[in-house]
Fold:
Amino acid sequence: MADAQSRPEGSRGLLWTGVTVVYAAIMLFPIFWMASMMVKPNDAMFARPTQWLFVPTLEHFSYVIEHGFHWYLLTSFLLCTVSTALVVIIGTPAAYAFARFEMRAKDDLFLFILASRMAPPVCLVIPFYLIFAKVGLLDTFLGLTLAYMTFNLSFYIWVLRSFCRDLPVQLEEAAALEGWSKPQIFRRVVFPLLRNGIVATAVLCFIFAWNEFLFAFMLGGRAVQTLPVSIPKLITSQGVRWGEMAVVGMTALLPVLAVVFVLQRHIVRGLTLGAVKG
Amino acid sequence: MTKPGERIFAMASASDTITTADIPPKALPRERLWYPYLLIAPSMLMLVVVSLVPFLYTIYLSFHAAKFGRVTDFIGFDNYAVLLTDARFWNSIGVAATFVVIAVPIEFMLGLAGALVLNQNVRGRSLLVPLLFMPTMMAPIVVGLLWKIMLAGSWGFFSYNVLERFNLLEGTSVFASPEYALYALIFVDIWQWTPFMMLAFFAGLQALPLGPYRAAAVDGANPVQMFFHITLPMMTPLLAVIGLLRFIDAFKVFDTIYILTGGGPGISTETPSILANKMTFEFWNIGEASALAVLVWLAFFVFCNAFYQIAKKRLNAF
Structure:
């Protein structure tokens, strides 16, 4: 209804634009404030009343580098890339199958996938911890990759299925009449059309893994430390390192900033598990 | 020579002109029934390992005496009995209920209002929409950090400039206050999730058909009437699905609470998630923690199923 229904009058559109801009500015102010704290000297940070102007410093950055936080960044990046790649490889055929083929107990299987996605991570971390301790997966990269499958594989199948359903089935029917085999149809017809959906869903998976805290905290131990897990480490016995936390927090935020701009149309579909097409 | 793909695409567009009656009912031959099962096998196997096995193991644990990582005797429903008579458990349910019952409706109303505003000819949406999404898409742990900074005792920007200015709180962080910490967490949740509601509802508004609005405009309906008689009825399934989804998610909030209050002061912000985590990794009372996890899980299945049924039947989404 949007543009056609609302009147094309300039002034009203401008008013609502203004309202939205002011709202966004207020909502995003905390992020701006944290960004400023990256280069804020400690005395300015704790000043009362609030000090707006200060001489920028790089001390927080140097502390973070000295204490090896770039390794946590690398760990995060590797873990998210590997687990997302695995999700795409095994999840894509499944999503396609759920969208296109008749199967027995399809509804129940599908609900099982949804339940995996929705299960509270706290409930999963208990059995994971004990099972991983038994089979030697605790504090390993592989263990964490597996744990991330719970929410990301189920998410991926569920959302990519909604992308699959958007594809016109006639293309596949035509290819089948041509005598193409099913793997051929998948590779040459479905996959090229589905590429955007795959990328969008995979990027969302990457972000969920990137943002994940509990599993990494409890199952990664000291061996596999991701960026979110490193943040509470800056609450030290000598006090809280606020500036350093701001640096790490903003670093963790950067990929998200990139993703919201690139994926904007697909985020709603992703976050609503395909219930709303963005 | 043309690539084989192009011919297929050309054929398909030609077949669009044929009426459905001409197409044989089984256009995709079903000679190989095992094919779909083959496609889903790796994923289902993986999900059985990472989702079903942990769930069954939790049920197993909940019926056993398990402390300090050692699983010993089968004790029937004892863990459940202990849990259900534990005041701390009921406190956590109360905290979560307060949290959800206050936060979700506010997010819902603000989100709907925001979506209606955004739907008025707002310019620069391609810039504004992604920015508005930031709070929802960023790591919950960073959201917590952000508000730890803004609401830090004495020097926090929001503490000093708002709370102290209006004599609401002096010197300490609001997260250290037993009465207000929970409301501060609710505030943070609203900040984090209102954009999600807003942009999901906005997407729903954008997808509404124009016809009814044209007809209503011809009949001289005003915008308020249009909202209550056209927009709201058409949006109801979507509102229900999004509300339910948010409701489910709000119950399992962990990261932000963990970094902001850790369930404290005392047990004033201790949700079942925080409690289960403490039971496991602080008290090492794994049997009781598992019993709690099983109860939470069962509650989730109910809501999860409701979400699925509504989304499928009313929204035709799945």
